[in-house]
Amino acid sequence: MSDWIAKAQAHRAKRDAAIPSGLLVDLKAAGVPELPEESLPLPYSKTEPHHPEPTTIYPKDNVTGVPSKVLSLEDVAITETPIDKLLSLLATGKLSSVRCTEAFLRRAVLAHQLTNCATDFFPEMALSRAKECDDYLAKNGKPMGLLHGLPVSLKDQFHIKDKEMTMGYLKWIGNIGKQNSVITDVILNAGGVVYVRTSIPQSLMRCETHNHIYGRTVSPFNRSFTPGGSSGGEGALVGMHGSPLGLGTDIGGSVRVPSAFNGLWGMRPSMHRVPYEGAANSFLGQESVSSVIGPLTHSLEGVVTFMRAVLAERPWEMDPILVSMPFNEDAYALKNLQLKAGSAEPAEAFTQGKTQLCFAIEWDDGIIHPHPPITRALREVKEKLIAAGHKVIDWVPYEHLRCYDIIGRIYSADGGEDIKRSCDEGGEPVMYNLMSTGQDQPHLSTFESWQLNQEKSKYRKEYLDYWQATKDKTGTGRPVDGIIAPVSSWASCKHDLNDHVSYTTQWNLLDRPCVVFPVGFVEPEKDPKVALENAYTALPGNVDQIYWDRYDPEEWKGLPINLQVVGKRLQDEELLGLAKVIRDAGATLH
Amino acid sequence: MSDWIAKAQAHRAKRDAAIPSGLLVDLKAAGVPELPEESLPLPYSKTEPHHPEPTTIYPKDNVTGVPSKVLSLEDVAITETPIDKLLSLLATGKLSSVRCTEAFLRRAVLAHQLTNCATDFFPEMALSRAKECDDYLAKNGKPMGLLHGLPVSLKDQFHIKDKEMTMGYLKWIGNIGKQNSVITDVILNAGGVVYVRTSIPQSLMRCETHNHIYGRTVSPFNRSFTPGGSSGGEGALVGMHGSPLGLGTDIGGSVRVPSAFNGLWGMRPSMHRVPYEGAANSFLGQESVSSVIGPLTHSLEGVVTFMRAVLAERPWEMDPILVSMPFNEDAYALKNLQLKAGSAEPAEAFTQGKTQLCFAIEWDDGIIHPHPPITRALREVKEKLIAAGHKVIDWVPYEHLRCYDIIGRIYSADGGEDIKRSCDEGGEPVMYNLMSTGQDQPHLSTFESWQLNQEKSKYRKEYLDYWQATKDKTGTGRPVDGIIAPVSSWASCKHDLNDHVSYTTQWNLLDRPCVVFPVGFVEPEKDPKVALENAYTALPGNVDQIYWDRYDPEEWKGLPINLQVVGKRLQDEELLGLAKVIRDAGATLH
């Protein structure tokens, strides 16, 4: 066994040993199959990157029902309490943070046993912090902040002072956090309790979750399927109700895909509103398309709470790249949409007591067709919005393939240098050549990367003009308020197959905020397999047809179906207001 | 004569021929020496970039008094009317835009004859547009926008549809604007009248103004001195009152230096508030430190009017990179500084009816010492602010040399490729190797440029923390509100010597907004030459001592002395409020 494999296995064993045995559940006794350990090095297909053989060693079970069987009634009740209610109980002392944290610790460990979602547990630190919160409330009679006493889970990119963190790279074994990442401080300043960190794919540049140290994370809805990624540990953990609020990052879909694949609400905020300063990352210094931090949670309230709590801490005084915009409550209440375009007078619909908005539906992106369940969800949401009095038009995608090409070249502008070096330093091989990590791409010169940035800027300008021009089609006097779109062409898939991400990268290149919301679950009778007419052929390898053919209603049964709503850049609060309109129209699952 | 020289001279002759002869003044009759034409190619010193021989062929005269001798009383009165008053006259029809534009056209042509500041005149287009404004007002009884009828001058980077523009490069002779730059549209939408474009240095990357097509622009205060650059054409034009509002750009001081050298108010806004989309530039696609558009004008009101007018046009609906922040009137009124830090309660000083702020003075940057007149100005401003009830502390620069080094490497990250190609395409030689244009620098790979970005980000973070930590020293409960600093170590200098720009680049790297304001003029009796003790030696070539030794009170006599106030990133309106406090304390010339 080579050195790096031994080192990886030892580190994984160290993680497992750190879990207090009192928190572990005897899965065998509960009749739940344990997860297999894949042997290292993990599967890698260079020749057929778009359709390697799916792994078949994972059980095809849905384990989301396990907690209610093996945890106490009270633990289940606490961990399934809606976040706004939970925060209210914590802020008033009706539930102690210690008790709440114990419940989430137990459920997080169980989620981890079932899905392999965690990289670290911090039971002692968390319970000590929870006691601090309880004591503060008792002494001061008021909560610490908007997240008072709430357990919050962190993706394995966010430093905690004095805690080791690897971000899934061998090279960072032994890497002790010199100080908290700014987001860690912000969460703590707002009263949060950090208790677990969660897994990621090697390099982060993949919408699955799989690395040499911690292995593979699986979907709780079907363990032979991927929970998505790169924030897939969060996806699986929050999907299992092992966390009320998880923090992921998104440079190409890495919050949204795991939110979608685990039936969650999630958000990719606009760049430079949530502090990334002091977090670990791939491609540090790459500023052309930035990764952003966003929440994965069970409700719109969870997303709103996250944004409110972060912005209340004035993070722009801690992270110099941030835009100094406090949470705009008026925008969340859509007050700006209640005015006539370019005027201080109220729009007509509003004077009549209506709140008529215009949404557009992106039925497909012209690159790959969504599976039938996704299309059904789009149809259902459209109907609900119309029933609620809103306008809904079709969104004709504007050259999304061009966008997909540009962002792929931005990701790989260093010819894979960053990832190669990171792997080399730890002695481990590069695992995948999938999501444009640049292993086979040319390393651009600075001048060439400037030319690429110009391609990006030109596309952004054309898209903005295209969006603005819709004001002639909406009947509201405004351009389209929000686009409702797939997050992925499918509702997850078997491991190692989730390689096509144009539905998410589109909005990263344009820096548009997106909120992901759950619509329902795959139901074979409603979502039968049909023939694909006119498959798109622009991508190499017949991807559209191949992805379409993989759909099997029985296999997909019960998998969550999610969509996203896309807003205007930096108008994150308005977008949350739009998401609330969609929720209030009954178009979301909850 | 080589081809490119003939081509450059022909294009310059074309410009001259386009000036209606009725607008030209007979300078000989007025007893004013004409400007010499320097022979091409223009001087270039590779061996001693920091102290080439100054050109000696220019007259050492101050020509700012010429207009009042050769123009009509009414033209002088119109062109010297404060901008707020002028806008009020225009908006109420008491002065027609046509009459106003005629006056500024005449004075701009005169300014050009005296300083060689213009690249294009558009008399027909401007007068036709002015008439459009007048007709609009007559018909609608209200002005077009916040700049109704006002002549506005543009740096030679801003496209006008169907008009040729070169940006001083031979390669762009014959380059016809396909459409307006967004800023041109914004100015027009706000009611402005575009009538002249102004000169720049080759490549824009220099704080002087000198290119092969249009030659050299000189300071109206001493024509053997530079007006600064790269917006030096604007500096000289506005300095001559040939424009009430000029638009420049600033990536390292290019608005601020010519504002300072011509006794003007000027502003470098934060990145991404004023639309750059569709403008010509060097280094297109370089996003690490962006150039920003800012105004050069005669008063604080001119600066505020510019920002209000631009932001009122919702430019973020036209330029996808912009931050969607309307002009924040509360911030301009400093309402946010009237609260206790982190609280909704008013700060103590304000409850007592005072508006106590804390400014810090940057006496020098630890790289190069300011000349005696600059230091005197800092001292005078400090006294005025204290007399007005504010606190003033010393600003200890935080590793400004490190910042100067980083930004120099960012400018030259392409090893000069962009400039080399631009020159090659026009067949002209590269003129200077001065302001880190990278001719002798290595061309970084994309990966290397990412590492450089990390150096920048680390410095930005440290500086933010450093600034925030001053809240323990200010006595206001807040960090320092604004830094008052030199714009340059001197109040201009002889041509070809203005190569040291650390006082301005500092705030570009940190993306801090800056407002430049006039304090007075060099007076030999108040600003005697003294010995420099402890010259800084960190820069090669003994720059500090050499620059200090150049000072000659008699030669500098009458040159404007300006300073800048530096604010918080994206808090441009608060910074304007701080500038108003400085003005209202009597610390500015006007």
TrEMBL record, chains A, B:
Keyword terms of this UniProt record: Hydrolase
Protein origin, superkingdom: Eukaryota
A GO MF label: amidase activity
Reactions catalysed, as given in the entry: a monocarboxylic acid amide + H2O = a monocarboxylate + NH4(+)
Gene3D superfamilies the UniProt entry points to: Amidase signature (AS) domain (3.90.1300.10)
Enzyme Commission (EC) number: 3.5.1.4
InterPro entries: Amidase_CS, Amidase_dom, AS_sf
Keyword Chloroplast tagged: no
Active-site residues (renumbered): K155 (charge relay system), S230 (charge relay system), S254 (acyl-ester intermediate)
Domain Amidase residue range list: 100-576
Enzyme class: hydrolase
Residue numbers binding substrate: L204, S230, I251, G252, G253, S254
PANTHER family on file: AMIDASE-RELATED-RELATED
Family, as annotated: Belongs to the amidase family.
UniProt-recorded name of the protein: amidase
